[in-house]
Amino acid sequence: MKVLYVCQDYGIPVLGSKGSSVHVREMIAAMRGAGHQVVLISPVATKGVWDQPAQVDARFLHIPASDEMLASLQAVEDYIVELGLESDFSKDVRRVLYDRHLQSRLVRKFAKSPPDFIYARAALHSVAPVALARETGRPLLVELNAPLVAENVAYRAGGNVELATAAERQLLSAADAVLVVSDYLVDHAVSCGARPDRVHVIPNGVDPRLFHPAARDPGCRARFGIGNGPILGFVGGLRQWHGVQILPELLQRLAPSFPQAQLVIVGNGPLESTLRQRLAELGLSQHAVFTGPLDHVQVADVIREFDIALAPYPKLDHPFYFSPLKLFEYMACGCAVVAADVGQVGTVVEAGKTGLLYPAGNLEQLTDRCEQVLSEPALRQAMGAAAAKEIHENFTWDRNASRVIEIADRLRGKP
Question: Which domains, from first to last, does the chain contain?
Answer without folding.
Answer: 2-205+396-411 (3.40.50.2000), 220-394 (3.40.50.2000)
